[in-house]
Records
---
Amino acid sequence: MKKAKYISLMLAVVFTFSAVCSIALPIEKAFAAAIVQAPQNVQVPALAYDENSITLVWEKPAVYDNVVNYNIYMDGKLVGTAYDNKTSPAKPYMDKFYADSSNQDAQKITMHNYTAKDLKPNTTYRFTVRAIDKDGNESPPSKVVTQVTTEVPKAFNIVDYGAVGDSTTSNTKAIQAAIDACTTGGKVVVPPGVFKTGAIWLKSNMTLEISKDATLLATENADEYVYGNLPYIYSTDTRFYSLINAHTFDFGSMSNIRIVGEGTIDGNGWKQIGVDKDEPSLPIYASPLNAAGQSDLKEVLNIGITAKTTVERAVGMGMTMKAVYPRRPSLVNFRGVNNVYFSGITVINPANHTLMNANCNNVTINGVIFKTYDCNNGDGIEFSHGSGLIVFNNFFDTGDDGMNFAAGQGAVGNKEQPTQNAWIFNNYFRHGHGAIVTGSHTAAWIQNILAEDNIMNGVDVGLRCKTNGPTGGGARNIVFRDNALKNIQLQGFIFTSAYSDPNAVMEFEPAVEPGRFKDIKVQNCTVDGTGKASIEVAGNANGYHENINFENVRFLHVKSALLDYMKNSSFKNVVFDNTEEPWKITNSTGLSFDKKTTQNSASVDAESAPVWPAASSMTAGEIGETSVVVSWSGAIDNVAVAKYNILANDIVVATVVGSEVSEKVTGFAPGETYKLKVEAIDATGNVTTTGPSVIVTTMGIKSTEPPIVSTDSDSVKLANIGTTWVNLTWNPATSQYGIKQYVVYVNDIQVAVLDSKVKSYNIGGLTANEKYTFKVKAVDVSGNETVYSVQPEGTTKPLYDLGAPKWAAKSNITANVTSTSVTLSWPAATDDKAVIGYRVYKDGNAISLSGESMNTANTVYTVNNTTFAVNGLSPNTKYTFKIEAGDAMGRWTGTGPSITVTTSK
């Protein structure tokens, strides 16, 4: 966990010092070197070293506008510069980008990583880094970083275990045998050739090396993928496990896994339909989506390969065609692993997602080539519910988002660990729905993200933040700086709480608080060309996006910025070239634009809310039983007051458009007292909160007639039932003078009081597999009440499996030892459903009585009770035994009791 905490500290420094000074100081060149600051936090990312190489990354100095390169010293000797980067597949694309004269004004990025190669095994090396300014002056050295290369690992070549690289033979068992045989610190080697395989399962403390000219090819045989994978523990969206898996439900019980090499991992998901006209090395795969973005399942069966066969297998399980589509296997799926490293490989054509990392900490992705365009759902990297991610030197040409962060969905997801502490730099993004993306799953919050020094050329969106109300949570504390964006197909930046996925099938209890985005800084970027809005903010009345600040951003050849429901945000030195109407602003408040920012009437209006003069007042006249005429003194705005809202008891009951300062307000009830208030709003949405008010009591006698409610059999009904929640709907009630509110009850206990406009409610926090009675009461403005006679009953769904079994504290194994056998006994584990069996490991190898392979998803076990005799042992020999428990979902404990014994002589 130290790496994750370190990244968190790094991000805190970035947020504190991200304002960059660019003042020209009259200092002699002889003293110029003194003002070049040293790089900060030089480090070796998690597992970014082996027997002959060490990779360094570092943060830029707090003041870095004069820095153009970095010198790297190893054991006191200069060994290279950051721009001397031979290991980055992104670097050639970056060089080509800046060599294009049309990009001469694009934001310049700096490289801040370096790989030292040709080192000696098991040897200590000391590194420092110095920043270089444009005049060639060096900074003082950074702090020293010391790293020891590994010993030469023991290699386990899959060919030695029966694998055949003919692109046809199924090698699943042979590759798994090599993995199972791999010793601690060893590596499993895929040599040159095309090796077809189904799902394989990695383990702790190993490397999977895909050699140059080697391909690991996903089989189209759907039977070779285990079914039962869930995106989240609480999901209902079950999927096939991936081609390559490292999976545990005891998060952190697996660690130190590397996938490296110069070869290819091919998901074999879709038929290839061509190559990119500008880059023939980039394939284009068939997409099954129609114009509405929905999957055409008949087309899936026509153009899919592994996508086709796994969908067909899911259909054979009895699912509907819509339900089967998300079940496809992804390329790589890690869950619950601490310390992960991907480097050098090329990943292509996944049937679903590409590199998925859930509940993992300290993940490093360096120099990976993503060729997944236009595979549906072919995201490059997904990171969820983990802490500590470093992504650099990668090339993205993806069929969905490039770098995507997720944090679960709904009320249950909101209780999980946040997705946090990530650093994305020195990458090249080509195709992709979004380059840097937070959402759409945001429940537990996505936070502390730094994305800097990247080029995004041709993606749909540069920074894409997407969520919706039921999902909840959001993203916060994001810095997006020093990035060059060009040829953006849709928005340069989008922050929306109206995202929906037409192919989603997952059910979840809706969050109480709607999803939103806040505390985001976009700084020192250029955007050249957008197909849609340069900046789009799409909140709603239930949730503003706020504290989103743009500074030193230049837009060229872009569409207008569309800001709706944005609050307390700023724009400093934000310049639009060739855009006639840069700002279109509605329903927003607290926005500021400095003098260096390109402005128009909308931005001027947005800067200031209307104000009420000191002597402002509101009066009431012509008071009747159901109406009142109100008048008020006008408010003042820097442009103009667009309208006035009249509130009764803090609820808007009338809107007056224009400069009128009186209105006959209707809809009151006789004999009632109201506090009437007026507030002014300008055209961009700034609204006052201190408007004048008056107390009024209407004429007549208070009504005693109760509301009229529908008695139809479906006047109150359960529209949807989940495991811990239901959606209750009802027909509207009527009353002579209006309905004030509805009150919802569960088993006669009040759970909600709702506005009269609401006709449905998600009731959460229920118990799974339990019967409930629901009722609704209508209350009118005079306080009269009527309870709907229809009171539906419903039973929540049974609880899904919540994870692996658990061991009681201090669970121990007892052993009865002879010269050739050991009889083991242990206490039973517990599970939220039931423990189906136990796996017994001897010296790290599982004992399978049936001969079937055991992985972290199937249900193969050694014994189904709590005692087991191991026979055929050697006398006077030490053995270590471990026990794991599993349930019917194939969820196994990564930890468990163990014992070391020595057989008698």
---
Amino acid sequence: MIWFVTLTASLAQGVRGRVVDVNKSPIPGATVVVMSSNVGATTDADGTYSLRLQPGTYSLRVSFVGYDSQTVPVTVQAGETAVADVSLAETASKLGELVVIGSRAATARTNIQTTVPVDVISTKEIKNFSQVDLGQVLNFVAPSFNSNRQTVTDGTDHIDPASLRGLGPDQTLVLVNGKRRHTSSLVNINGSVGRGAVGTDMNVIPVAAVERIEVLRDGAAAQYGSDAIAGVINVVLKKNYQGLTASLMTGGSFTNMTYQTPNIAGGTDNHSVSLHDGRVFQFDISKGFRLGSRGFLTVSGQVVDRERTNRSGEDNAPTIYLGASGGFPATTALPAAQRPQLLADDATLVRQRGYDRRNMVVGNSSARNYGVFANGSVPLGQRSELYFTGGVTSRSGTGYGNNRIPVSRTQQPLTADGTLYYPDGFLPAIKATIGDQSLLAGFKTKFGQWNMDLSNTFGRNQFRFDVENSANASLPNSSTPQTAFYAGTLSFDQNTTNLDFSRLYERAGSIRSLNLAFGGEFRRDHFVIEPGEVNSYSGDPNKRVPLAPLSLTGTSPGTTTPLPGAQVFPGYQPDFAVDKSRTNVSLYGDVEGELFNRLLLDVAGRYENYSDFGSALTGKLATRLRLSDAFNLRGAISTGFRAPSLHQRYFQNISTQFVSGNPSNTLTVNNDNPIARNVIGVDALRAEKSVNYTLGLTGRIGRSFTFTVDAYQIDITDRIVYSGGFNRTLLGFGANDYPGVNLVRFFANAANTRTRGIDIVGTERVTLGAARLSVSLAMNFNKNLVTGINSTPLIDNPANNEGKGGNPDNWFKNILFDRQQRGYIESFLPRDKQNLIVDFTLGKFNANLRMARFGKAQFLTNADPYAKDASGNYYNSQFARDANGTPYIDQTYSPVVYTDLTLGYGLTKQLTLQVGANNLFDVYPDQIYLDPRNALGSVDYNSGRDQSNRSRFLYGSNQGGFNGHFLFGRLSFSM
């Protein structure tokens, strides 16, 4: 069919031609529009275009971002094809990319002319590689942005937490076409980046719908409101687009995973596993339509089908069928001298049943994503316009939890005769169903010289949890137990109404381009937790189940209490159901102008009032001094805030979190819960506040080299964090209080932080004969530091700390914000990141090389390995140490470099073929430390000695992932 369309276009009467720059190099993607009509086309990789037209005289408008547009006349004769070649000259701003974010002025400036740093990521950069999600695209293009896929983290397996400048997912505001985008309904509570935060799911926006992405790397709460502490990401959708583009991409991981494990003889075993998984199929399409003579409509859709990946190691639990869960029984039940026989008996059962110790899925979850977005505008006369944007996305996927081995009797369902329903254990799964809908409608008009913009934006996100291949061990024994459960649904919706006014004065005395802007916003947030079915969370608190035998012929040595709720994800209980909302009213003002043709100033202020926690006033002063025609000095100082999300205020649940390789049911209580308020003494949540400083130098050297260097400091007070786990015994729970719950966590304004860093971006574009070469190098160096802990009198009470004595890990002030929580902020993300992108074009051939370097990162364990008792002995003596006493568990991961290569060729004017490889050299990050004392067959086993979860987790996900070599092919069509 594509061949037929191509042939038909080439034979029809009309006009054809080639669009080039002044060096005769082709300009792919240029827009050619027949004036006063809805007929148009875009140029292919060779810069050529063709239009089918009836005989007559026409005016063609040819344009491309960064070039001066041209209008050329053309006459079409009957039965003939006219030729109209066009040469476009670069505008002075081409190499800087035009942007408008960060300013209320409508004046487009380049990113070396703005008062604050802005990155512009074009469609070409988005589509040249194999990433099909916006979050992953940004992760490998923008050095100050991190968004890594998580694994075995419940709902976070399906929504990637993102970080800008090392801050939390909820400290970056996401806009679509300059309007606030709603956040996800999911709050991250498992062990991942952004723990305790609520981010925006950018992956629901089809890549095909995006024209460019603008990343504002500066505090902007005074301009755009809450959440913009780290900066703003503005996704600009296609507009005034004509023609049809579509692409089909498929690929998969072809990797050789090598790793080492310790053996019982004191050496190491080398492993090499050849893997082919993670197949990705993606199809997207975008079609532009004319609405009347000046209106437009662009409809874009995307289908992504992604298989799971698995990079797990083998379970080194000492026993699978006999003994205790993930370790040995206490010596009172089994003397240490009998452990060798227990290991031998269990090994016999492992061989007889053919048990595979690679019993987990550690990698990308599977996902199937369908999304459609529409973006359009309809003029109303010469001074008014209706505009609209709408999107609907549906995504479903499956992620996996920790494998429940047969010996884990608190988790195993029993048949009617008391035997295990899953005799070889089971791997429970969480099936996520995510729905996302948004609608933006607005009206723009002019009253004299004043511009008015009235808009309303509605967005909703739902996250449904279903548990599969699971069980509720606390239900009555049955030969046909329930294995699938509906565990509940999270929902969040937001409605935002904006009214904005602005006016541009070309001259106001000595001030040029004076822009005045003011306006207001009304927003309503709404958060809902819908409980799951009864069997997903309930159970018999008095039920007892037999422990596993201690020998091949032995009987159970006793009984234990099974954990209530569906394994892997207990459902939301009715007591935790939530239906809460709040409103927010804000007013802002913004003045921007250039003095003496040299000094650009921008002053902004914003007042916000929330119905649930009060008001906030923020301000910003930004400036750019033109030192010369080539160099600019810029800087900004601003205050910011982030209102506590409704999720953080009201979320409650019980989840299964694994601690040192063993399951522990964790109760998360909301801020109003008596446990948080009365037992622990936590205050009501309040807004985070920040002060942001930026100072930078930008410029152009020669004809085509541009650079920006920006240093920054962000001070945040009252930062909201997800606490450490308070043991039920420490909190004084009775035997019947919260059956099955081991730990309690909550949200609190517990930390003050300081972030310092520097961003460096340089770009060079040159012409090499008939070829074009573009080179871009971007670097970020970042340091986060916790500068203070905000506690409560109860938590600081010496009776709950030093007065308790014993291991400091059990002191309240250390549990509130433990070492691991501090590590997630200070060291878990790479301290630096660099991106090098090289784009080479020669005729119909195009090559793209990208190298992303993720700097070193460090993991900190929550148990303090340095704490000593009065005799100088370590409290946590389970950790191995080097000769200096440094624990291996506080592991520092070396920098890792990923290299991506894509080769493209224009088969015809309409068809382009690309083939490529991500992670060309099949690089993996450093392996997680495995304690040699936990080698398979050890009689001295302790799963808490390292962070490998019984050696099943081999790599961390904080340095770009660990899926290895990925090959892909893409076929693109445009007309």
